Please model this.
Amino acid sequence: MQPALPLLAAFAGVLGLLVGSFLNVVIYRLPLMMEREWREQCRALFPGSDAAAPAAGPADTAAFNLFVPRSGCPACKAQIKARHNIPLFGWLWLRGRCAACGVAIPLRYPVIEALSGLVSAYLVWRFGYTVDAAAAVLVSWALIALTVIDLDHQLLPDTITVPLLWAGLLFQLLAAPHAPTSPFAASLSDAVIGAMAGYLSLWLVYQGFRLATGKEGMGYGDFKLFAALLAWLGYQMFLPILLLSAVTGAVTGIALIVLGRHGRREPIPFGPYLAAAGFVAMAWGEALLTAVPFLRVFPPAG
Model:
């Protein structure tokens, strides 16, 4: 083990906590920002239509983005003081309640912050002093945001999935070749083939399901996320990610229906399972291929 690796992992954990606080902002505000943009487009194309009517939420005329206005309590709208906004510890200090009105602050906020911190620390501990470790941490942050947004809104925003895809290809172009312990694609050709295979495979499933049932079984965001994951990890991870996400998604969906937590006709977002499978492949992909040899059906291209 490198002498200062525990210290570096601890620093990554603290940084992850801070980023986790920002991810909470992204998760809450980005879908609202997209809705405002869609309504502005509707006003331009169909003046006076119901679709262009103001939505319940921030006024369309007020500045609203990832940085403005300052974070506030969803119930009383009071601005959160800096000392109460310390990731994880601020929630514990306030005992999970707003300092102004006493309304409970959802547990999801500290959970996302803690998850971001733990994942960041683990990946740095796992991959050490490498560019690959830093890249893996960045990818994991994007996956956390996409997972929760998809659970909340059944939406995988292009503003995250598309940059994640291009960043993966650019990373392979600039950083390859990697160390043998790297979680990422062995070559740029592996990354490009992976991105193409990821997108086209789910697109074909989507088209086949639509032709057979007349319904849409998944969204285009799923295609882009799968393409992005394989742009980073290479096409060798195609089968592990696809099978792991499909099996966990099916088992979870059936369990939710049996337990009465989800209707049979209600769509279940696939993005969270893709994201989780992608993280598993990134963190333990080689061990997974070794443990389950039939998953290693694609040898490296270069």
